[in-house]
Amino acid sequence: MAIQVIKDKCKGCKLCLKACPFDAIDMDGKVAVINEKCTACNQCIAACPFDAIEKTGDDAAVDLSAYKDVWVFAEQRNGKLMNVALELIGEGRRLAKEISEDTKVCALLVGDGIDHLEQECYEYGAERVVMIQDPLLKNYTTDGYTKVIVDAVEEYKPELVIYGATHIGRDLAPRVAARLNTGLTADCTRLDIKVSSYIEYAKNNTTLDTSTLDPNDPSTGIKQTRPAFGGNLMATIICPKTRPQMSTVRPGVMQKRDRVAGATGERVDYKPQISESDIRIQIKDIVKSAKELVSLTDADIICSGGRGLGDPSGFELIKEFADKVGGVVGSSRAAVDAGWIDHSHQVGQTGTTVKPKIYFACGISGAIQHLAGMQTSDIIVAINKDPDAPIFEVADFGIVGDLYKVIPEIIAEWDNAEELYDASTK
Ligand SMILES: Cc1cc2nc3c(=O)[nH]c(=O)nc-3n(C[C@H](O)[C@H](O)[C@H](O)COP(=O)(O)OP(=O)(O)OC[C@H]3O[C@@H](n4cnc5c(N)ncnc54)[C@H](O)[C@@H]3O)c2cc1C
Q1: Angle between the 403-425 and 314-325 helix axes, to the nearest 10 degrees?
Q2: Residue 335: CB within 6 Å of ligand 1?
Q3: DSSP 110-164
Q4: Where is the 4Fe-4S ferredoxin-type domain (predicted)?
Q5: Pocket of ligand 1 contains residue 169 by CB under 6 Å
Q6: What is the rounded distance in angstroms from the CA atom of residue 255 to the CA atom of residue 22?
Q7: What is the pLDDT of residues 29-66, one digit of tens each?
Q8: Most CB atoms closer than 10 Å: which of 13, 37, 101, 321?
Q9: Nearest CA to ligand 1 atom 4
């Protein structure tokens, strides 16, 4: 693929020169010319106001029909599958079957010494496992994983690849997408199948005259929905011209399928072509952060505190509350930004998405970015002294009052409440 300047359209405005990160454009008199440093990154095309730059070569010739199946990057760390990988295998299976009965969901396992994870992938819904193992892939490196995944995608041509929006997924997916010259939608909260104009047309017309339809409209595509503009609207994004389509999805958003013990599938071993020179960094040591690990995604009960706590010591009360009810401490971004608590506790659009059985929002107003991360909780209990706080619109139970009075009362009554509950359910 290459980029070329259409000479008679170029007005010599040099905006493409300024936009090019690779110094790949020179001026030949008043006309821009592309030199050999070009990586076809598209920045010049986006910058040109005169439509004078275009791609040539195989870009126009992406055969969408050559791509098939849904791949899920089954992220593992230290030989353990991440929860989000299992959630996405379930979601991938749903999407695959909506695309067509013979579309398969494949788990992509990358690492070394990870044979034991294959079975778990089948039990959570994978129909095929593509296994890529090599000692050089034992620990995650951007270079190593990108290289082998790009090679495997080019060989097998999946039509959709989804990754968890974890630290690794967020690092890896854009690299892979850039190398494959395809699109990526980050942080999706919803994935749906887009129906082609052919199918739409066929539904409404008894005789199908395809000559009027766009031949490039893929038979299927994925509608990728994510919050945009600070969470104030949801944007649905499609990737109509290139393949594979790629998305990252936040942990906790999709539902895991029920585990089917003993489920089986097809294993494909992909032998990676990788050498030490492909990996530009060396991992000398992996040191776990000494800070307390917060497992918000798996928690059944979360007690979150916000700016309404007034100062950092308020989190001591929230911690006492969480310990009493068997929960985990969460927070709003305002509390994190104030330096009252570590970001790992943050719930919301730029924090963690959670779906506990009970979510206590204490001194949290209910900004849309906070709601984006917790509104699908089974039961939401809001404690706020402002009766008009937006959090009450999503709360199942609202307590209007000062959290410093309400929470100690709940703590004091919790044991009684548990006894009452036990008695009522006997
Ligand atoms: C791009 C972007 C991303 C963002 N991502 C996130 C995110 O991931 N998570 C997130 O939380 N926010 C996020 N935000 C910030 C968000 O917009 C809000 O600013 C933030 O959620 C407000 O936090 P809060 O509810 O704790 O504070 P406030 O909005 O100030 O609310 C404090 C509440 O406490 C109540 N209160 C005060 N004192 C008491 C008391 N003694 N007892 C009871 N109630 C009391 C008040 O009535 C008020 O309702 C993001 C913003 C942007 C622009």
Answers
A1: 0
A2: yes
A3: EESS-GGGHHHHHHTT-SEEEEEE-GGGSS--HHHHHHHHHHHHHHH--SEEEEE
A4: 1-30, 31-58
A5: no
A6: 43
A7: 889 999 988 888 778 888 888 889 988 765 555 677 78
A8: 321
A9: 369
DSSP string, 308-374: GG-STTHHHHHHHHHHHHT-EEEE-HHHHHTTSS-GGGBBSTTSB----SEEEEES----HHHHTTT
Give residue-wise pLDDT tens across range 141-184. 999 999 999 999 999 999 999 999 999 999 999 999 999 989 99
Nearest CA to ligand 1 atom 18: 367
Peptide bond before residue 244 is cis, with ω within 30 degrees of 0: yes
Give, using CA atoms, the residue closest to atom 40 of ligand 1: 402
The residue type found at 11 is: K
Cα-to-centroid distance, 317 and ligand 1 (Å): 18
Q: What is the number of the ligand 1 atom nearest to the C-alpha of 335?
A: 26
CB atoms within 10 A of CB 60: 11
The complex's ipTM? 0.99
Q: Is 129 in the pocket of ligand 1 (CB under 6 A)?
A: no
For residue 38, give both structure tokens.
């070009």
**Distance (Å) from CA 167 to ligand 1 centroid:** 25
Residue of minimum CA distance from atom 27 in ligand 1: 307
- Phi/psi for 263 (5° steps) reads -60, 150
